[in-house]
TrEMBL record:
Domain of life: Eukaryota
Organism: Aegilops tauschii subsp. strangulata (Goatgrass)
Alphabetic keyword roster: Membrane, Transmembrane, Transmembrane helix
Transmembrane spans: 58-76
Identification of the protein by name: Stress enhanced protein 1, chloroplastic
Length: 82
């Protein structure tokens, strides 16, 4: 029995090179790994390193949930307009 082949569709066009979204994604990945690296080396969170106190855990969890729901809504709305 042969395994089924898997095809991957790439949304990135090959005409003009990487677009703005690709560069923003790369920048976000670098910033994330930089923040994790700073946290691992100093032992303090990112907000504590710049002199801000970390928010309450319940507030941070609620804000994360709201941002996640809004982001999912935007993604689903942009997908349904095609």
């Amino acid at each position: 029995m042969r395994p089924k082949s898997l095809s991957v569709r790439c949304e990135q066009g090959s005409k003009g090179g990487p677009g703005l979204d690709v560069w923003l994604s790369r920048g976000a990945m670098l910033a994330f790994f930089g923040a994790v690296g700073v946290e691992l080396t100093t032992g303090k969170g990112v907000l504590q390193n710049v002199g801000l106190m970390a928010p309450l855990p319940a507030l941070a969890l609620g804000l994360t949930g709201v941002v996640g729901v809004v982001t999912a809504f935007i993604i689903f709305q942009s997908g349904s307009s095609d």
